[in-house]
Write a structure and sequence with these properties.
CATH class of one domain in chain B: Mainly Alpha
Radius of gyration of chain B: 24 Å
CATH superfamily of one domain in chain B: MetI-like
Distance between the termini of chain A: 29 Å
Helix content of chain A: 25-40%
Number of strands of chain B: 0
Number of helices of chain A: 10
Structural class of chain A: alpha/beta
Distance between the termini of chain B: 6 Å
Radius of gyration of chain A: 21 Å
Order of helices and strands of chain B: HHHHHHHHHHHHHH
Number of domains of chain A: 2
Oligomer: heterodimer
Strand order of the largest sheet of chain A: 6-7-8-3-9-10-12-11
CATH topology of the largest domain in chain A: Rossmann fold
CATH architecture of one domain in chain B: Orthogonal Bundle
Number of strands of chain A: 12
Helix content of chain B: over 70%
């Protein structure tokens, strides 16, 4: 086994494909990512770049026709890709919890929200082979969790999901996810479907809660701004690869990969005078992805090697170790 | 809305529906070009006798006056007398109705249990053996005519194997005590277990024949609905909680998948109540379907109207029950 880079999560060489009628979609092409306990890692990229697939892979919730064909996902040293469904169910919801993009649709429409939280608490106790708390205790935890996320439990616990607003539903999801005190919370575009004002509220809430509980967060988002506001580390994904990874400071102050640079130029800022730029071209078809570096057809710095081989994902020299700055681009490889 | 006021609203709608059915049935039976007096007295009766009979039956009055008489009777619980047997229609109907209800209930239970199970398994084990089996079973159920299948079953299970009786509600030498008219229920109430098991044996074939096509429809709808539900986001949430597959399916998916099935069950049950005519005929089942067919053949106006009203009434009651069940299962419907 290779050396562990992050003591909580270490994804290496992860490849996921989906077999469809049109052909095999090579959704993840060797993803590299790692994080320590209590850290907040943002995964950013355009729609279809594999952010959500990465998140679902960690939960091992990739369904047919998708499958993990290569790579490891080490969670506290345990390889999640090698576990059985039964073993995974001991980790899902308990050590790793997840919240989703559309919170109302993510809640069961025919179950009261209180009951859905209680179910989680009960199940996690049961799977941990703890003695079952009395039902009253469980209900008390549920109410505390609702209070914890800023909801009035008396008003909320007996509501059905369709009676909640998007923001309330996401709060319920957060309460449910954190009720089992997970070590890692995966948040897959948790604010994308919400109003802008609610987005800020939810992010602030999440921010304070994970600080308080010291939960690590893997935040999936397409919005650079959201990632910048929330995360300690950023991984930039493009067409199934992490192309650049490093601390917030490294990515924003010293972006190296041409794609990262392009993304940052496309973010509007107050007081910015230069023109907002977009990256030319479109996201490639992953059934028949470009050869070599998958970004090369859109890259302004394309060189002769770029369509021949995939650039290695390597540390950037001359920076602090703590920045973990890594990039996958031939521009920065010494032997090119 | 409160469930109570919802039910009251639906009940008042039901009264309107029944009233409409009543008027339509009354008018249709009166305008068909056939003469019940001729059917009763025969073609060679002297004109005086025909006129006397016509007057006696009230058929010489204008159609509107006949309708008013008829409606007046209904409000007093009187559906008129049979033109053939002269017995009150209501008495006849109440005698035949329990057999139909018994058969319809046993068929719908059979169809729901088997249909939901098959549909659920087909969706969960998609494209595996059980799915293919269920598909073939369903296509046969929908395409094979019940009367033909019924005769084949009688041929096999009665004539060849001798395992099951060929028809009727119970054997000739079984004498059930009549309390409610539902043979199985009466047998249980009165502790007549020989009657109970005899009745069960007689129910098996008609239940299968009547319930088969409903089973098939329910299985198909259940499969489609379950497949749809299994792809919903909340199922992913349930799995992300680490719940085992069985719990995800039975606690989270099943109830959601049943919502569209409830509609079908309501419609099918109504169909079973009213559409049992062929099955009742094949299995000599003394039910309302056969009563109405016989009444049609003898142009027994009050019997036809009365029977039809009862079927409409049952249909409405079942659909009301379905709507209430809907609201109970799906909180979004209570809005």
């Amino acid at each position: 086994m290779q050396r562990r880079r992050g003591d909580l999560l270490d994804i290496s060489g992860l490849k996921v494909v989906f077999d469809t009628y049109a052909g095999q979609v090579k959704a993840l092409n060797g993803v590299e990512l790692w994080m320590n306990h209590g850290e907040r890692l943002g995964v950013v990229g355009e729609t279809g770049c594999g952010k959500s697939v990465t998140a679902l892979s960690v939960m091992r919730l990739i369904d047919e026709p998708g499958k993990i064909i290569e790579g490891n996902i080490l969670f506290e040293g345990k390889d999640l890709t090698a576990l059985s469904e039964g073993e995974l169910n001991m980790i899902r919801g308990k050590d790793i919890a997840m919240i989703f993009q559309e919170p109302v649709a993510a809640l069961n429409p025919v179950m009261k929200v209180g009951a859905q939280i209680v179910e989680n608490i009960e199940w996690q106790r049961k799977s941990a082979a703890q003695e079952r708390g009395s039902p009253l205790q469980t209900v008390q935890i549920m109410r505390d969790m609702l209070k914890f996320v800023g909801l009035d439990w008396q008003r909320t616990e007996n509501l059905y999901p369709h009676e909640l607003s998007g923001g309330m539903a996401q709060r319920v999801m957060i309460a449910m996810a954190l009720s089992s005190k997970p070590k890692l919370l995966i948040a897959d575009e948790p604010t994308s479907a919400l109003d802008v004002t609610i987005q800020a509220q939810i992010l602030n809430l999440l921010n304070s809660l994970v600080k308080e509980t010291r939960t690590a967060v893997l935040l999936i988002t397409h919005a650079m701004g959201v990632a910048a506001q929330f995360c300690d580390f950023i991984a930039v994904m493009y067409a199934g690869n992490v192309v650049e990874y490093g601390s917030l400071h490294a990515i924003f102050d010293n972006p190296l990969h041409p794609y990262t640079k392009g993304l940052l130029k496309a973010v509007p800022k107050i007081g910015r005078t230069d023109e907002l730029q977009s990256i030319p071209g479109i996201v490639p078809d992953l059934i028949d992805p470009p050869s070599g570096c998958r970004f090369h057809p859109r890259c302004p710095h394309r060189g002769p090697a770029c369509d021949k081989a995939q650039p290695r994902f390597e540390p950037v020299g001359g920076e602090s170790e703590a920045d973990r700055h890594h990039v996958a681009c031939f521009l920065y490889q010494k032997d090119h | 809305m409160e469930l109570g006021s919802f039910i009251i609203k639906r009940l008042s709608l039901m009264v309107l529906v029944i009233f409409g059915v009543l008027i339509i049935v009354f008018i249709v039976t009166r305008i068909i070009p056939a003469d019940p007096v001729g059917a009763i007295l025969g073609g060679n009766a002297p004109p005086e006798a025909v006129d006397a009979m016509r007057h006696q039956l009230g058929l010489d009055k204008p159609i509107f006056a006949q309708l008013v008489d008829y409606l007046g009777g209904i409000f007093r619980g009187n559906l008129g007398n049979s033109l053939v047997s002269s017995r009150p229609v209501i008495t006849d109907i109440l005698e035949y109705l329990p057999a139909t209800i018994e058969l319809a209930i046993s068929s719908i239970i059979f169809a729901v249990v088997l249909g939901v199970t098959l549909g659920l398994l087909s969706a969960v084990f998609r494209n595996r053996f059980i799915d293919h089996f269920s598909r073939v079973f369903s296509i046969l159920g929908i395409s094979l005519p019940g009367f033909w299948l019924g005769l084949i079953m009688i041929l096999i299970f009665y004539y060849k194997l001798g395992w099951l009786p060929s028809g009727g509600q119970y054997d000739m030498f079984v004498f059930p005590t009549r309390t409610t008219g539902l043979v199985l229920l009466d047998a249980m109430i009165n502790g007549e277990w020989n009657v109970f098991f005899n009745g069960i044996k007689h129910l098996i074939l008609p239940t299968f024949i009547l319930g088969y096509s409903s089973t098939a429809s329910i299985a198909r709808i259940m499969r489609a609905s379950m497949l749809d539900v299994l792809h919903q986001n909340y199922i992913r949430t349930a799995r992300a909680k680490g719940l085992p597959k069985k719990v995800v399916i039975l606690r989270h998916a099943l109830k959601n998948a049943l919502i569209p099935v409830i509609t079908i069950v309501g419609l099918e049950f109504g169909g079973l109540l009213s559409g049992a005519v062929l099955t009742e005929t094949i299995f000599s089942w003394p039910g309302l379907g056969r009563y109405i067919v016989n009444s049609l053949l003898t142009l027994d106006y009050p019997a036809i109207s009365g029977g039809t009203i009862f079927i409409a009434l049952m249909y409405s009651v079942v659909n009301l029950a379905v709507d209430i069940l809907y609201a109970a299962v799906d909180p979004r419907m209570r809005a």
